[in-house]
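name: query_chain
kind: protein
chains: 1
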Amino acid sequence: MTKKQLIISAVIAAVLIGLIIAVSVYGKSKNSNINDSKKVTYPEQRKIATSIGNGADGSKSPGTGTSSDSNSSGSSSNSGGSSKSAGFADSNNWYQKTYEAASPESSGYPIPKNNHFLGIEGSLKPSDPHKAELAIYLDFENSFDTQLQELRSTIQPILGSEITDEIVSYMKTKTSRNVGLDKWWETDSKKINVASGYADYIVELLSWKK
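structure:
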């Protein structure tokens, strides 16, 4: 083999070695990128606390508070606002009563001893004039007419026939859970609110002293 042929062979061998090294490096780099692309970063998972008594799912829980058995009294505030009353609460509620609530009779309304109301309570904090002196909760899906008759006999002696008729008529417009109610009335001595949240089965009447 001549000197020229030896030089050519050496150059070809060097080129081949360079190609082999380049292919090897490129292959490792590509495999590394593929492995990295397969790594999935998951977002942080947090435990979300759900509120008690959310009625949006259609379950029987009041939109303005947590539900309880009929004629039970609760431990939340009866203050005005978009949620007019935290309602009567069961033992799972996170509110705790630290004062003695007034009886419904202390409101001056003639409360029937036997009634079909879903719940009825006096002021939860008698010393606070911003708290409703009386809260009556009606279930429009069960014996609604009977409850309305009992409500009429309860509020008419105090509010008079005209406003009582308006209140009862307004409550009757709650024909489905998709109907929301929120209306106010005033007399010389009382301020009344009737409310019911959307997706809620409870209609509530709240009364304040003026």
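note: The CA atoms of residues 63 and 201 lie 8 Å apart.
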